[in-house]
Amino acid sequence: MRTAFVVLLLLVLTTLSPAPAGAADNGEWSVRPADSAITPRAAFELPTQPGTTLTDRAVVTNTTTAQLTFRLYVADAHNTERDGGLAVRGIEETQRGVGAWGKPEQETITVPARSAVTVGITLTVPRDASPGDHVGALVAVDTRVQPADGSHLGVQRGVGARIYLRVEGPQQPGLAVEDVRFTARSPQIPWTGTRDSTVAYTLHNTGNVKLAPEVSLRVGGMVVGGPGERRLANVPAELLAGQKVRLTETWAGAPFAGWGQVTVMASADAVRGSGTDGFLEVPWLFAVCLPLLAASWWLLRRRNRHEPPAAADAHTIKPTCGRSRFSTSSTHDRSTEVRGLDERGHGQGTA
Length: 351
Fold this sequence. Notes:
Strand content: 35-45%
Largest sheet: 6 strands, mixed
Number of helices: 3
């Protein structure tokens, strides 16, 4: 039971190739649609109507030097919660969409070394199928159980070719950004050390068609450091209808001080969605210095406001306009003491 769980988990995470542009291939075997009369195909892309039965063919190629045996099944596809990558349900899981509608004409095939086998596939779309995109895969699982690296458990590997069914009807694209969370992790002393702030958000396809979203973020408010806008890289190449994924991205150049808001904006096929998270980030050095600077500024202004003007110099003579006027000194300003007259009539005394 423990081995089977690990086998199933690894299968779900590694089934589909990372991009729909090429055939699903892990270096030992591949699964792809049989070439049409017009052009090669990398995936099954089939328009259809409710109540329709479709038939197609797939080619399973063995590139190793030994024959390989595979179990074939059709599975529902979904976006993983971990990173939004495309994965499928395991062979023992309940299928609800394309996986329940499709069936290979052979459930087990053996492919000789360096050879290929063509197998048919039938897809029966129910009458009550909802309009829009339904995505799955034709999966070839190697029947061998191989040891996992550094573990006593065994694993099985699978490769799947995508199946895109578009059921006719109203197409209603929709995209939303939900639960934005900005977490600032900056050094306590600005411009020292590293910054590993993160932005987390949920990207939700609210419509009925698959989307190829582009996501960016914008910073508003009074902030120190960080660009005003940047594009996010860790975005799923395909977001299936009705799927939502939780994404987190490290932001080394985020603002390290200030207050404002971070807005995450998503767009795809002329639809838009956005979500916002506010933040207040004050490093301890700013928290200590700013009150001290504010107090110093307040005291300086208070001192300048209440200090009296300098007094005039007492020895300074202020000129007056107009004609000068002189006042004579009082008789008391100069006194003469006469003690008597000599015989010649000269007074004796001191003046």
